[in-house]
Write a structure and sequence with these properties.
By secondary structure, the chain is an alpha/beta fold. It has 2 domains: 4-12 and 257-379, Aspartate Aminotransferase, domain 1, CATH 3.90.1150.10; 16-255, Aspartate Aminotransferase, domain 2 (3-Layer(aba) Sandwich), CATH 3.40.640.10. 41% of the residues lie in helices and 13% in strands. It is built from 13 helices and 12 strands. Strands 2-8-7-6-5-3-4 form a 7-stranded mixed sheet, sandwiched between helices. Helix 2 (38-57) runs parallel beside helix 9, helix 3 (71-86) packs parallel to helix 4 and helix 11 (305-314) packs across helix 13 (361-379).
Length: 381
């Protein structure tokens, strides 16, 4: 049975060039980059080149990038780091109801530690109101954390507009760009962000590596304690092979930044055209216009998400019900609840399709046709 992978928002396969690069580094550059001898200097050179290349991809300086174990650690480091460093100024933080759990659970932890959180609502397109954010700002607000693009429905928040709003306010601005990075152009100065989180495994890089952009001069308490790696901001010996692989994935993603979105939009059109031709009843969760190019979340009335996922998997099609970090949970998606309410049927019948490396138009069409057959069987057509 041919298998079709349409769950790239959960994780993506490593690009062959990334694998080759990592194998080379693992074989030849095994030194500790903190060591002063030749082996250490060689590893340090790999690390420095990767840092410069990755910094350039977002318009940052090389000293503004610290490597982490992934998006979760980057989010935790940004939010807890700012909270601990700025709590003498204020203890109010603003975020949204649809953030990734790496942000939401971190904020909930800080609430238990005495911080006050404001969770901004979203409309049915999954978008916050900048007016709501402006109204929520206070003199003691120290941080605003708003994700760039949502991992479940793809909604793209007005990041540049938020950055402009915060220019006149002392609060720092963090964005989780894990899903947006690599499929959209990002310039931290144009956006006005102070901190930005990224993970490698979403862009065909290795798991277990990510980065946090920290604007130069920003005061941030370290999240880990130990050695003096990463300019004393992230202790622990750097994973040089993973960082080299990450850098290779970034170079590939930047090279394909114009081609990919157009291809993914075509995939969306093909998928929806098959549904239309088959007269399948469906509703799109979120906005097609203001959405990540590779993510499409669709509600199929009369179906059940668990049955859909099982049947699709048995038919060789891998998709998701939303965030991979809540896979297996019987709880409805917190994103869809925020968008439509906890009693909405959409929280029980929505599927996320997400595109990436190796996908073809023929595969997408085939997956759509399989989906139609399953829907018709489940609704008794």
């Amino acid at each position: 049975m041919e298998r079709i992978y349409l769950d790239h928002a959960a994780t993506s396969p490593m690009h062959p060039n990334v694998v080759d690069r990592m194998m080379t580094v693992m074989s030849h550059d095994f030194g500790n980059p903190s060591s002063i001898h030749a082996f250490g200097r060689e590893a340090r050179h790999v690390l420095d080149e990767a840092r410069s290349s990755i910094a350039k991809s977002i318009g940052a300086g090389r000293n503004e990038i610290i490597f982490t174990s992934g998006g979760t650690e980057a989010d935790n480091t940004a939010i807890i780091g700012v909270a601990n460093a700025q709590e003498n100024i204020g203890k109010h933080i603003i975020t949204t109801e649809i953030e990734h759990h790496a942000v939401l659970h971190t904020c909930q932890f800080l609430e238990k530690s005495g911080f006050e959180l404001t969770y901004l609502p979203v409309n049915e397109a999954g978008l916050i109101s900048v007016a709501d954010l402006k109204a929520a700002l206070r003199d003691d607000t120290i941080l605003v954390s708003v994700m760039f693009g949502n991992n479940e429905v793809g909604s793209i928040q007005p990041i540049a507009e938020i950055g402009q709003l915060l220019k006149g306010h002392p609060a720092l601005f963090h964005t989780d760009a894990v899903q947006a990075y690599g499929v959209m152009p990002i310039d931290v100065h144009e956006l006005g962000v102070d901190l930005l989180s990224v993970s490698a495994h979403k862009i065909n890089g290795p798991k277990g590596i990510g980065f946090l952009y920290i604007r130069e001069g920003l005061k941030l308490s370290p999240f880990l304690y130990g050695g003096e790696q990463e300019r004393k901001r992230r202790a622990g010996t750097e994973s040089v092979p993973a960082i080299a692989g990450f850098s290779e994935a970034v170079l590939i993603a930047q090279h394909e930044l114009e081609r990919k979105p157009a291809q993914y939009k075509r995939f969306k059109d093909v998928l929806l055209a098959v549904f239309d031709e088959a007269d399948v009843q469906y509703e799109i969760n979120g906005s097609i216009e203001q959405s990540l190019p590779h993510v499409l979340n669709v509600s199929f009335p009369g179906t059940n998400v668990e049955s859909m996922l099982v049947n699709l998997d048995l038919s060789g099609v891998a998709v998701s019900s939303g965030s991979a970090c809540t896979a297996g949970s019987i709880e409805p998606s917190h994103v869809l609840v925020a968008m439509f309410g906890k009693d909405s049927e959409r929280t029980k019948n929505s599927i996320r399709f997400s595109f990436g490396l190796h996908n073809t138009e023929q595969e997408v069409r085939q997956a759509a046709e399989v989906t139609v057959k399953i829907i018709n069987r489940l609704v008794g057509r």
